[in-house]
Amino acid sequence: MEGFKYKDYDGLGLADLVKKKEVQPLELVEEAIRLTDSLNPKMNAVINKMYEQARNSAGQKLTGAFAGVPMFLKDISQEIAGEPITAGSGAFLKYRAKEDSEYARRLRQAGVVFLGQTNVPEFALVAVTEPAHYGPTRNPWNLDHTPGGSSGGSAAAVASGLVPIAGANDGGGSIRIPAAYCGLFGLKPTRGRTPVGPNYGRAWQGASVEHVLTRSVRDSAAMLDALHGHEKAGAFSAPPFEGSYLSAAGTPLGKKRRVAFSVKSPIGTEVDADCREAVLKTVLLLESMGHQIEEVESPVDGHKIATSYLTMYFGETAALLKSLGEVLERKATAADVEPTTWLLGLLGKATSAEEFVLSLREWDRAALSMETFHETYDFYITPTTAHPPAKIGELEPSSSEKFLISTVGKLGLGGVLKKAGIVDQIVQKNLARTPFTQLANLTGQPAMSLPLHLTKDCLPVGVQVMAARGREDLLFQLAGELEQSEMWQDVRKNALWDC
């Protein structure tokens, strides 16, 4: 490995070296282990190490597009038989996965070597990764700041160069938000494109999908080639795609496209100047490439989307706490989970089946509106987030809020809080920093975050691009072109703590 610089290669680049016998899979694994042991204590990105399993896997015959490439899985839903999967919660510490997830099975077929699991907020419920049990994950660009969530551990692992690829999933922005905060590429696929089973046919009613976080566009595209396809228990099917996403990532768009953009928050909250600037610079670049640009907001009511998203969020948390009893072998109590999780569950219990069904109908109306919108516009561009990364602990509940949460939890007053308008307050507080990403989850569209801007403090912010359902190929084409731009390269050359 003389002269070999592991961090200089993306996943496909490392796999090519393995294929040419210029490096052995075990050498890649040992380098990833060395970096993890050196850097992870600063970041707390990795919470479960599978080093011996990785060494054993590296010694086996590996085939596939990513043969021999080390990667981490996310500590929720991406199960490995016999390994813990805690979802960031102390309640699951004794739990062991009974079988591989379909996601992990397909990645094994692609040849990757699993090194361990990355940190997540409890049950992946928030957009920062600061679980009480494991502690916060820190952003490698600035350790005082969050890498986002819920795939924050994976984002920090990739951004710091521990691995070129890490597992992620996205139910309200959990791929795109960490990608934006860590200067990475992150694509949320179309609903039904990637597997969520075998234990479930849907995740968060179809809002959540599985994929990866990467440094390069082509790694994400090749991973989608490996992951997509029919799933026996899958509740949803994406529009068919017979081509190669990797090929799309290397193919220019060719004809000029119609591009809509907006820098206004869909819920009327503030958008930071850097997040607006990132979008405005991007659309100017696209205009210089000959694309037709128009400033126009989406046809969907942002407040209705936010409320319907939270209705699902509350209901899913309540159901999760109910099913937690199967793991604990007793009824779950407030002491088993973080206070905010318990509060969300109470709000879910106070949500009627009628409200839940009506919220899902709102998703369908939004999906129809956006499909019609994309008959005119090929792409819809917004900031990925409304603000740069928050500082660690900045979004922690205040003392008075903690007291309220504790009191409500003890007295079971979820219904009272709903009637008092607490849901509207939660919309404003929890989605004010990240109001742009939920739309694509509820409509089922593909959306990506592009690393195209740095703040004056050298923190990344992302640009989100959405396309019609089933058109990941268009997103990869656009991303492949923009990856060569000076804007993208400026972010890349300043990466890995070089600012």
Automatic annotation (TrEMBL):
It is an enzyme of class 3 (hydrolase). GO terms for molecular function: amidase activity. Keywords: Hydrolase. Its EC number is 3.5.1.4. The keyword Hydrolase applies. Residues 27-475 form the Amidase domain. The keyword Nucleotidyltransferase does not apply. Belongs to the amidase family. This is Amidase.
